[in-house]
Amino acid sequence: MPKYETPMLDELENGPWPSFISGIKRLRDEHPEKRINEVCGSLLGQLEHSYETRKGYWKGGTVSVFGYGGGIIPRFSEVGDAFPESKEFHTLRVQPPAGNYYSTDMLRQLADSWEKHGSGLITFHGQTGNIMFIGTDTDGTQHFFDEINEYGWDLGGAGPCVRTGMSCVGAARCEQSCCNEHAIHRHLLNNFTDDVHRPALPYKFKFKISGCPNDCQNAIERSDFAVIGTWRDDMVINQDEVKAFVEKKGRDYVIDNVTSRCPTNCMTLNEDNTLTVDNSNCVRCMHCLNVMPKALSPGNDRGVTILIGGKRTLKIGDLMGTVVIPFKKLETAEDYESLVEFAEEVIDFWAENGLEHERCGEMIERIGLVNFLEGVGVDVDPHMINNPRQCSYVRTDGWDEEAEKWFARKAEEAAG
Amino acid sequence: MALEEMRQPIESGCPDGFQYMHPTMRRNYGLWDYHENVKPGVLLHVAKSGEKIWTIKVGTQRILDVFSLRTLCDIGDKYAEGYIRFTLRSNIEYVVTDEAKVDPLIKAIEDAGFVVGGTANSVTTLSHTQGWLHCDIPGTDASGVVKSMMDELIDEFKNCNMPNRVHITTSCCQINCGGQGDIAINVQHTKPPKINHDQVANVCERPSVVARCPVAAIRPAMVNGKPSLEVDEKKCICCGACFPPCPPMQINDAEHTKLAIWVGGNHSNARGKPTFQKLVAAGIPNNPPRWPEATAIVKRILKEYKAGAKDWERINEWIERIGWPRFFEVTGLPFTKYHVDNWRGARASLNASTHIRF
């Protein structure tokens, strides 16, 4: 007979989808370590209490490991008297490898360490992208971190700091990848380890990297600094594969699902079942490449677009990132260095000018994009907007000077 | 422990993933040519070198106990090639380089109680937030909601019968984590916070709490002779932003914390620009352990989307084509004054044209 009964949670053991409740019960009933049996039994007791009363009972606090200020989500139970074995139930946020790759050997090693010091519950991964080692007390937090830190694992961000980054499967297994997500992810994150471990920024700051505009990583909507792979020359067309596709699917299918779905109408299906593309009007939306991955591929002059300021609701409402760098090559060591320098510019400017608990995108909304661009040293560019201003409430007495700057930049570009 | 005995951390940051990557993926990094959807749950990627790799995608309970994790590792060692990747939505991906290994791997996964699917035009695993299991501010559970819904949607996970992929998300509070989804099931509070005035001065940094409110409804006040905070309940939008910095301002309520359903969030740039999700249903009971009312609405929306959308249309594109009046008509959901936005920028969401479907 378990110490705490769980009639409501038991309902979640029914049905075909794997049950997390059954998993926690296995730790309660079958794990050789008595400490884990008791902690997981007590956890289930508190969770059942939440299900009965429709309330959460965890509170935060201050727990960290020696030398760091963040990385731990402290949890103390408000109903610890009733469920004492799990009254301290902290989570360690651990940074995964870029792209979330693991060998089974390494997963076993992490499981072995966690079993020694924690509850035996792990999540791959939390919403910010961390491995979540859920449930240990204050001592266990330090001991577990010390152990895994010795073999290559480090804490992620929690609190007002640079948060753990995320990147898509990318070049490791995707033909649409236009950049080295892995290198971008690690160059950016590992330049800011101090800002990850010691929260001292206005609020959270997230980097996310997607290898192409399909943005499988949700970078534009969910990160302060989104890096999206793209290309600027012509897409690559294998006309033989186009013909094979048209023969297999029929012309109607290709017209209905490829050419007429192009957002800028830049594709024509020719009479000989080849495709003509007006590349100067292609916006790199990815649709046709997604439908015909064998026939159509990204171009060869590849790089990234950077969007700044995406975030979820709190405080002013959800925001998408805004294009701030329309195109950047990322090939040489200098290219990567300048990417990291740009990220430093953005974070420094925001750290200086952001209000407490104000995300970077909210600051941009408050001060205007132009002030932000001037602050980080980026010139305005029409790729940054959907349309020019619609309202005449603006002072334009610097117009001639600004126009001159534009023509000077254009002349410089033309000169190469 | 004395300070000098404490171990200094090694600030190694984000680990190099190449050491944990399947050798075929490492060898062909950046050199893939195309992919095919072989069958539900199985992808084939072909490299320019001609090398091939099959990916088998697996749904799990996400909150993994070490037994389940070791079972997944055992399967990876015996039937795959010793590597596991996790997707953004916490699915597992095994990879094999021999087609003959695909079916035995699928059998081993299914025999162990996990589910193969979630690729291409399927309803993939709901993305979880934390919920009652571990969060400090949740209005509901996440793992329980996801388990309950996936039990009902499992056939859509195991098959690819949708017009395009469907991403569903959960969020246990109104404002923080959880992302944009084709369908989002999010907490929506309906009453202002209940304040424990005895505790506010001890626990909360009052100016920060005042600053946190999106509608400036909170002000400092003396209550029963103690410094506290009060809420202008006419202004309050019940978002719960004050609760995390000030736990005595309890926003969660067994009856008045409800669920809302939002649709049409789409992070991809394919065809159209990325879109935010829009509110379609609210006032849904937060009803553990199975949340049947929320699941029923999700299934109704999916049924109409499946029947009405054209190939490749995501939910937002389908609704854009048929129009919102038709969406409410076909799903049978009520259209109310709460659907009309009044937050900043709201006028851009109003119809300033005679484009009307009769």
In short:
The complex is a heterodimer of chains A (416) and B (358). Chain A is of the alpha+beta class and 416 residues long. Chain A has helices spanning 7-10, 20-30, 34-53, 104-117, 138-150, 181-191, 193-197, 219-222, 239-249, 251-257, 287-291, 333-353, 360-367, 369-376, 399-415; strands at residues 58-59, 72-73, 76-77, 90-94, 101-103, 121-124, 131-136, 166-167, 207-210, 225-231, 236-237, 267-269, 275-277, 296-297, 302-308, 322-328.
Please provide a written account of the structure.
The complex is a heterodimer of chains A (416) and B (358). In chain A, helix 4 runs antiparallel to helix 5 (138-150) and helix 13 crosses helix 14. Chain A folds into 4 domains: 7-53, no CATH class; 58-150, Alpha-Beta Plaits, CATH 3.30.70; 166-224 and 305-415, Sulfite Reductase Hemoprotein, domain 1; 236-297, Alpha-Beta Plaits, CATH 3.30.70.20. The mean pLDDT of chain A is 97. In chain A, strands 8-9-10-15-16 form a 5-stranded mixed β-sheet. In chain A, strands 2-4-7-6 form a 4-stranded antiparallel β-sheet. Chain A contains 15 helices and 16 strands. Chain A has 416 residues and is an alpha+beta fold. Chain B is an alpha+beta fold. Chain B folds into 3 domains: 17-116, Alpha-Beta Plaits, CATH 3.30.70; 131-190 and 254-339, Sulfite Reductase Hemoprotein, domain 1; 194-248, Alpha-Beta Plaits (2-Layer Sandwich). In chain B, 25% of the residues lie in helices and 22% in strands. Chain B is built from 9 helices and 15 strands. In chain B, strands 1, 2, 3, 5, 6 and 7 form a 6-stranded antiparallel β-sheet that branches. In chain B, a hairpin with a 5-residue loop joins strand 5 and strand 6 (92-96). Classes of the chains: A alpha+beta (416), B alpha+beta (358). Chains A and B meet through helix 2, helix 3, strand 1, strand 5 and helix 4 of A and strand 1, strand 3, strand 4, helix 2 and strand 5 of B. Strand 6 of chain A pairs antiparallel with strand 4 (63-65) of chain B, so a sheet runs across the interface.
